[in-house]
Amino acid sequence: MPASLSDPSEGSSSSVLRDLPVLLVAVVWGSSFLAVQRVAEPGTVVAMLVLRFGLVLPLLGLVAWRALRRLSRAEWLGGAALGLVLSGIFLLETYGAVHTSATNAGLIISLAMVLTPLGESALARTAPPKAFLAAAGLAVLGVALLTGDGGLRPPALGDLLVLGAALVRSAYVLAMARTRAVRGTDVLAVTWVQLAVATGVFAAVACLVGPAPWTVARSYGAGQWGWLLHLSLFCTLFAFFVQMWAVRATSPSRVSLLLGTEPLWAAVFGITVAGNRMGPLALLGGALVLVATEWGRRTAPVPAPAPAVAPAPAPHPAGGECESGTDAVGPGAEPAPV
Q1: Exposure letters 36-58 (e unless 16+ CB within 10 A, then b)
Q2: Domain extent for 174
Q3: Is residue 12 part of a domain?
Q4: For 100-155, how does the pLDDT look when each residue is reduced to its tens digit (9 = 90+)?
Q5: How does this protein lie in the membrane (predicted)?
Q6: Could you say which of 16, 212, 274, 296 would form a disulfide bridge with 135 (CB–CB 3.0 to 4.6 Å)?
Q7: Total domain count, the chain
């Protein structure tokens, strides 16, 4: 049937079907901070990270095996260097998540969407648009209201850790885009290398801090194993493969917009499931963060095209607690939360 005579509802239905998996990724990312709080305590964070990515690596490795065999020495080293930075993001985000509310963590980590374009402008020595600077200022005001719960109290430790994760996440995206060794490298392969190095860091730290991963695994009940599998299979593997499919099936801007709803879902899960309570000014602060990050996404300066296409970041955090690469889906897009 000619396009001009086709049923308009058919195209609309097809668009909805393409959007649903991406929206579901934003939902599971939004739930990830709550999931972390269900499976980790301050003393078991590192052991939980070993378990989480120990489940992911073999499955991802099977898919990426052929691509891994083709990696050059420079690509292995470049991916390993990025993996060290990625491990810092996971540690900051996860420790932050167990020291603050799921709502605060999900909203604060979304600031990476504003921080990354600011860093890009600073490196390029160009002034960002005034509208973007206004959005950044609004985001700062929103975080101040949110973390102070409407008062003048200093931010909690968890809030500061998640804010640190947002800063490191922005640096990670900028570094990845400028690491020549991994430009054009197979996304699956470089993702596996980064996650493998990060997991190695967690395993080394676990030898010095807290209980052993196998001890924590034995202590988990059915519910905790369910949350851990949710983090591993849905927040990481599922999210990563949906993004790979989505950037080919729909527009990068549309994917970025849908994934940008993650902090909203984090707030929904935090309030309805975790029972987080927010005062009127804190609610206003959360709303300002959501508005500011979306405003910043739309007004962010567009970076100059790189000589070669950079691979997507490895699966977190993070807008949420699951790291998965979204830098390839549009300006200002960020890896998900840990």
Answers
A1: bbbbbeeebbbbbbbbbbebbbe
A2: 26-329
A3: no
A4: 988 888 888 888 878 888 888 888 888 888 888 888 888 888 887 877 665 556 77
A5: Multi-pass membrane protein
A6: 296
A7: 1
